[in-house]
Amino acid sequence: MPSTEPAARELQDRAALWSTGEIPATDVVTAACDALVASLDSPALRILAACTRAEADYDVPDLLPPALDELGLTFHPAASIAGQEAAARALAARMLAGELTPRELAFRIHHRFGHEFALVEQLANLDDEYHILEYGDRTPAQVDADVTAEALLLAQHPRLATEPTDAPT
């Protein structure tokens, strides 16, 4: 029997990405379905997985937190530091999995967090570098390599243990 850990991680990542507006609610429902197929199971997860595309935008906000809780996963509000970290890690994981290019990752991180979030500030700086390539001596491949290295560091960065849910951004 295959491990359920990858499906749990994917559900957690999609929850973080949805919470920050990076993906639509239907992607969370798809992750819930994939989690059920991977042998994760709970009553709230089944209800979440049963949402139709038309219901997802309305129902995911209420169904996702209890589904994650029943599975021992954490739902981080978008405005929390832990939520921002989770979303940044999920974006880095998508790039490392080949779902985003390094330039797309740097752009999305820069767009989402600007230069104000220390954990991903170097990625925002690298997005700026993409815009000045024609004036410097670096190549796109060199900046891509730096973004990939930052994504690897981000994926390996220790997670926050606990945090109050009303933490400022």
Description of the molecule:
The longest helix is centred in the middle third of the chain and has 18 residues, at 53-70. Helices cover 64% and strands 0% of the residues. The relative contact order is 0.13. Mean pLDDT is 89; it is low at 160-169. It folds into two domains: 5-70, no CATH class; 81-156, no CATH class. The protein has helices at residues 5-19, 25-37, 43-49, 53-70, 81-96, 102-113, 121-131, 140-156. It is built from eight helices and no strands. It is elongated, with a radius of gyration of 17 Å. The chain is mostly helical and 169 residues long.
**What is the H/E string?**
HHHHHHHH
Number of domains: 2
Low-confidence stretches: 160-169
Distance between the termini: 41 Å
- Global outline: elongated
